[in-house]
Every structure is written in structure tokens, then in C-alpha cells.
Write a structure and sequence with these properties.
Layout lengths: L2 H22 L5 H13 L5 H13 L4 H4 L1 E2 L6 E2 L4 H11 L3 E5 L6 E6 L3 H6 L5 H7 L5 E3 L4 H11 L3 E5 L5 E6 H9 L14 E3 L5 E4 L4 H8 L11 H9 L8 E4 L2 E8 L4 E8 L2
Parallel strand pairs: 2-3, 5-6
Antiparallel strand pairs: 1-7, 3-4, 6-7, 8-9, 9-12, 10-11, 11-12
Helix pairs in contact: 1-2, 2-3, 3-9
Length: about 280
């Protein structure tokens, strides 16, 4: 047996002994378990991707819906009173699959419209207010204080993918999807509507820009004609993180060099996507 193989075996044995002892002594906190697992990562017994997922899964148990929900101001909704032909272009442009349908009351969500349910109606030339109501799915409502692990369990049991978040007064505070919860565990889930591999800055319809946090500061400065520090930081995300002084939640904003930065996507470890627009 080689010395290298022997040392790895001893490291594995040492780690196994530690984790066995830790569990036999009933660890007092999740931090105790994480310390052991991080040691295992350092010794290459588990890889960094697995460790990231474990940390995400453990942290989700301490997180609440209000921390990651999509705020009401950013929700894409349709009004039941409107003709579907009027909001169809917005549905196509947004590329979402589910849309809350609002009633006459600003806080009245009468159901969830699935984009795929519009296709049969369109093919049959039956798009109309009444026919839309026929295909609405029931809306699920959850409080802002609900824990993410509990919500994920409910999503799995009910096969729902979206829930409307309500505040303590029963008003609509935002929405949350199963993808939002899963991204806290495994990181950002990209789909065919996300940026292509090379794009870093994307112009949005409202005149703002969606910017990946990993965008090099040099490229950002060149695009926006700004002078953000290119010496201390490599990426825009690093500059924004330092400016906040803490890991910001989705929806938090800050102004730098004449630009407003709003966090669009972040998990419990890093900022991923930022909205940028000229300050008023």
C-alpha cells in the first residue's frame, strides 16, 4: 500500500471517527454538524458541490418565505376583467409558465392561469374572459412567516408550483415558486429563457438592465461609462456586496456611481443577478 493511499485511509478513518463520535454525543447545534462536514470537504471526502447542497438544505430550515419571495411590485399578473388578447403579448414576453389572475379587488387573487392552458383555447378560437375562468387553477396562499422547508413539503404533497404570499392583514405581499425554494438549496436553476452562456448584460423592456453578478467590473464600466473600482474587485457582484455590507435579499437596492442596483436573484451564499438603471 502506498504512503498516499495510507494517508487518505487514515484521514477517512479520522473523519469517520469524528462524525461517529459527534452523533453519539448528540451534537448541540447544526453548526457542530457543519463543522464536521466542512472538515470532510477539506479532506476531499465529500466534494464542494455536495457540501454546498448540504449547507443550502440545512439553511432552508431557518429561512422564511418573506426572505426570498418575489415582491408584489415585481409580480407579472393578469386581470380577470381584461380580454385575454390584450395581455397575451405580455404573457409571451415574460416567458413565465404561471400567472396570478386578479379580480376587481387589488388583493383578490381568483386563481392561477397556466400559459399552456391558453394554447387549446387559442387553437379553438375560444379566447375570452369567460373561457379563461374555466381553465383557472385554484390559488394557494401562504403567510410571509412560513418556513421554506415546510413550504417545499407542501409543494411536493399538493404538486403545486406557485403560492401567493399574504401579509398579516391578508393583503398580497408577493409570490413564491418551487423553483425559488430549490434555488436556495442547489443554486440558480437556469432555463431556456435565461441568459445565453456568453451574455452578461441584458436590456429589459422597461429600460433597465439585468446584469449577472459575475460580470467583470471592466466590462461593466465600459458598457455603462462608469468608473467602479477595477483594482479591488473583479466582479460587479463583489462591489455591490461590499456596498451593502451584508448579503442582501432579493429586492434590496443601493445607489452607486449614478446607478441604482437592485438584487433580482440571490441565494443564501451569493448574489447572482442584479437590475441596474440610471438614478432618477
Amino acid at each position: 500500500m502506498s504512503d498516499d493511499h495510507s494517508s487518505r485511509s487514515q484521514a477517512s478513518k479520522s473523519w469517520l471517527e469524528r462524525i461517529s463520535q459527534a452523533f453519539s454525543n448528540e451534537p448541540e447545534s447544526a453548526d457542530d454538524i457543519l463543522e464536521i462536514l466542512r472538515d470532510a470537504e477539506t479532506q476531499h471526502i465529500i466534494d464542494s458541490d455536495a457540501m454546498s447542497i448540504i449547507e443550502g438544505a440545512m439553511q432552508v430550515t431557518d429561512m422564511r418565505v418573506e426572505e426570498i419571495m418575489i415582491p408584489r411590485s415585481q409580480m407579472v399578473t393578469v386581470k380577470a376583467a381584461n380580454d385575454p388578447r390584450d395581455y397575451l403579448p405580455e404573457i409571451i414576453e415574460s416567458a413565465h409558465s404561471r400567472f396570478p389572475v386578479m379580480g376587481d379587488n387589488p388583493d383578490e387573487v381568483i386563481g392561477i392561469l397556466l400559459a399552456k392552458d391558453l394554447l387549446p383555447l387559442a387553437l379553438q378560437n375560444r379566447l375570452g374572459r369567460d373561457t379563461i375562468r374555466e381553465v383557472l387553477r385554484p390559488a394557494t396562499f401562504v403567510p410571509e412567516s412560513k418556513r421554506l422547508n415546510q413550504l417545499l413539503k407542501e409543494f411536493k404533497e399538493t404538486r403545486n408550483h406557485m403560492a401567493i404570499v399574504v401579509d398579516e392583514y391578508g393583503g398580497v405581499a408577493g409570490l413564491i415558486t418551487i423553483e425559488d425554494v430549490l434555488e436556495q438549496i442547489v443554486g440558480e436553476i437556469e432555463d431556456e429563457h435565461d441568459f445565453d452562456e456568453e451574455a452578461q448584460i441584458k436590456t429589459r423592456d422597461d429600460g433597465s438592465y439585468a446584469v449577472k453578478a459575475v460580470t467583470p467590473v471592466e466590462d461593466f464600466n465600459e458598457f455603462f461609462k462608469t468608473s467602479l473600482d477595477e483594482e479591488e474587485f473583479d466582479t460587479v457582484g463583489g462591489i455591490v456586496l461590499k456596498a451593502f455590507g451584508h448579503l442582501p435579499r432579493r429586492g434590496e437596492s443601493i445607489t452607486l456611481d449614478g446607478l441604482d442596483f437592485t438584487v433580482l436573484n440571490a441565494d443564501n451564499r451569493v448574489i447572482r443577478l442584479i437590475q441596474v438603471k440610471r438614478s432618477a
